[in-house]
Amino acid sequence: MARIRAVYYQVAEELKEKIMTGGLAPGEMILSESQLAELYGISRTTVRQGIGLLVDAGYLYSVPGKGYFVAAPALNKIIENVTEAPFIGQNPSVLMSKVDVMAADELLVEKLRVRPGESTLRMQLIINSSDGPVGIDNRHIPYRRGQPLLEKELQYADFPDAVARHSKLVVAKSDLTVAAIPLNKHEAELLAVEAGFPALCVEQVLYDVGDKPLGWSITKYRSDRYVFAGITHAYSGKV
Amino acid sequence: MARIRAVYYQVAEELKEKIMTGGLAPGEMILSESQLAELYGISRTTVRQGIGLLVDAGYLYSVPGKGYFVAAPALNKIIENVTEAPFIGQNPSVLMSKVDVMAADELLVEKLRVRPGESTLRMQLIINSSDGPVGIDNRHIPYRRGQPLLEKELQYADFPDAVARHSKLVVAKSDLTVAAIPLNKHEAELLAVEAGFPALCVEQVLYDVGDKPLGWSITKYRSDRYVFAGITHAYSGKV
DNA sequence: TAGTGGTCTAGACCACGGA
DNA sequence: CCGTGGTCTAGACCACTAA
After folding, report:
1. Residue A40 and residue A11: Cα distance in Å, rounded?
2. Strand C closer than 7 A to residue A65 Cβ
3. Cα(A3)–Cα(A10) distance, integer angstroms
4. Which residue of chain A has the CA closest to B226?
5. What average pLDDT score do residues A192-217 get?
6. Other beta carbons within 10 Å of A64
7. Is the CB of A201 less than 8 angstroms away from the CB of B209?
8. Does the distance separating the beta carbons of A75 and B160 come in below 8 Å?
9. Could you tell me what percentage of chain B is helix, strand and coil, using 3-state DSSP and rounding each to the nearest 5?
10. H or E element: which one contains B27?
11. How many CA atoms lie within 13 A of A116 on its CB side?
C-alpha cells in the first residue's frame, strides 16, 4: 500500500467506496478483520483502525461473534445548526435594553426550578440589523449572591457563553424549542410591526452536567427577518 | 486495575472525572500517553484507546508533538432532533389528500434543480391529531420515467424514507429551515383557522451523496398544535 | 536532542455465535 | 469446535515541537 495517506485511512476509503457504489448492500456482511488484514498484507490492528472510522461515521456496525455489517443509510435526526446565516439583513448588532433582578414567578419556577420568589437576573436584548429590529431576547439566570453583574460579559457573549461565565459552571446540555407565535402589542411595538404579526420563537433552557437549569432564554424574531436553519447528514464527518 | 469495565474505559472515566470536577482546567495539558501508561501499569496502546474516547466526545484535543489538552466546553451547534414529541394532541395520523404530476415551475427549478417544465411528482398530506388538523405537508420529487407510483410507500414513510425508496438512492444530506409565516386563505381553511394565523413552516431539501436534490418538502403546522424541539450537548455520548 | 502524539506490527487471550 | 470482534501487550519508526 502506498503511503499517500495513512494505511488505515485508505482501508476506510476503499470500504466506503464499495458501500457507496452499491458493491456492498445494506445488511450485508463485509470481510472479517483477519481476512482484510491478509488481503491487504497489513496487521489486524490497522484494519480495525480503518473499520473504526466507518463505524463512527455510521457506515458499518459490528455484531460481536459474527462480523461487521453495512448499515442501512438513514438521515439521522442530528442537525448541525447554522446560527449566523439566517439573519435577513446585514450587520446584526445587539443592544442590552433592560437588566434587573426579579422575584421568580410561576414560569421561572418551572423553567429554572428555583423556589418561588427567589431572585432571578433578567435581561432584555434587542437584536438589530441594518434594516431595523430583528428580535427580542429575554434571558433569565438564577441570581447568585455575591456574583457580580458583569454587563459586558452578559451582553456580548451568546447566551450559553454568558451563562457559563456568570455561573462558572459547565453548560453541558440545552433543551431547545422553536415555535411560531403572534406578537403581543408591546413586542410588536419594539419590532416595529403591528400586533399579531407572526414571530419565530426560539426558547432555550441550559443545564449543567447534573441537569440543573442554569439559564433560560426566549427570543422572538420578526418572521420576515429571521429563519432557523440547519443541515442533517446520514453519515458523520471523517473518511 | 480491576476488570469491571475495560481498562481503557476506566482510563477515560478517570480522566473525565478529573476534567469535570475542575482538577484539570480547560487549556491545561494532561499527562502524556507514556506517563499515563507507566502510572497505571498498562500499555500505551490502551491509554490511547481511552484518550481516543475523550477526544471523540470533545473533552480533549491533541496537538501532535506537544500533548493532549483539555478542551474549553462549548455548547456545540449540533441538535438532536426530537420529531415525535412536539405534537400537541394525540394519535397523529396522516392523510394523503392529493397526488399528481406537475410541470416544474420557478420554485421547483430552484429547489430541485430540474429543468423548467420537467415533470415533478407532487403530494399533499394532511397531518391530523385527535384535536383536529395539525399541518399540511407538500412534498415534491423529480419524476423519473418508469418509476411506478407506490402510494403506500410514499404515504406511510417519513419524507426521507419515501424519497430513498422512490429514487432508490441514498439520501445523504438535507438542508432544513424553520420559519414562522402567516397562513393564506386556502391553507387556513384546511387547518380550520382564519387566514393570517401563524404557522410554523418546516422546509427540507434532501440531497444524495453528490449534492443532487432528491426531494423537497414544505410543511406548515398550526402554531398552537406543533413546536419544533431538540436537545444540544457540549459533549457527545460514550464515556 | 529528548519528548510528544501518529502510525503500524505481530502477537495474545477472551466471550460470543453458529454449525 | 472454529471464526468473529473486543481487549491488551510490548515493541517499532515517524514527524513534529521545544529547549
Report:
1. 9
2. yes
3. 9
4. A179
5. 95
6. 5
7. no
8. yes
9. 25, 35, 40
10. none
11. 2
With a CB-CB cutoff of 8 Å, which residues 155-194 of chain A face chain B?
Answer: 160-161, 164, 170-182
Which of A79, A181, A229 lies nearest to residue B198, judging by beta carbons? Answer: A181
The answer, for B209 touching chain A at a CB cutoff of 8 Å, is yes
Give the whole-angstrom CA distance, residue A213 versus residue A203: 13
C7 C1' – A119 CA distance, angstroms?
56
Outline where A87-150 has alpha helix (H): 106-112
Alpha-carbon torsion (B181, B185, B191, B193), positive or negative: positive
Q: Residue A1 pLDDT > 50, yes or no? A: no
Those nucleotides of strand D lying less than 7 Å from any protein Cβ are 3-12, 15-18
- Residue B153: the pLDDT is 63
The percent of residues in chain A predicted with pLDDT above 70, rounded, is 89
Cβ atoms of A202 and A144 within 8 Å: the answer is no
Contact flag A79-B75 (C-beta cutoff 8 Å)? no
Q: Which residues of chain B does A209 touch, with a Cβ-Cβ cutoff of 8 Å?
A: 20
The pLDDT value given to residue A174? 95
How far A185 CA sits from the closest chain B CA (Å)?
Answer: 16
Quote the minimal CA–CA distance from A95 to chain B in Å. Answer: 23
* DSSP 3-state of A25: coil
The rounded percent of chain A whose pLDDT value lies above 90 is: 69
Residue partners of A56: CB distance under 8 A and separation at least 6: A236, A238, B56
Kindly report the number of other CB atoms within 10 A of residue B34's CB atom. 10
The region that residue B204 occupies, defined by phi over 0 for left and psi between -120 and 50 for alpha, beta otherwise, is beta
Grid cell for residue B100: 399528481
By C-alpha to C1' distance, C18 is nearest to A66
Give me the A residues in range 79-98 that sit within 7 A (CB) of strand C.
Answer: none
Interface of B with A in 52-71 (CB under 8 A): 56
Helix, strand, or coil (residue B55): helix
Mutate one of A43, A178, A236 to test the B interface: name it (highest B CB count within 10 A): A178
Half-sphere exposure of B20 toward its Cβ, with a 13 Å CA cutoff? 16
* Residue B63: all three cell numbers together: 496537538
CA distance linking residue A195 with residue B38, whole number of Å? 68
Q: Which residues of chain B have pLDDT under 50?
A: 1-3, 84-85
Mean pLDDT value across residues A94-109: 93
CB atoms within 10 A of CB A21: 9
Q: Which helix (H) or strand (E) is B40 found in, with range?
A: helix B33-40
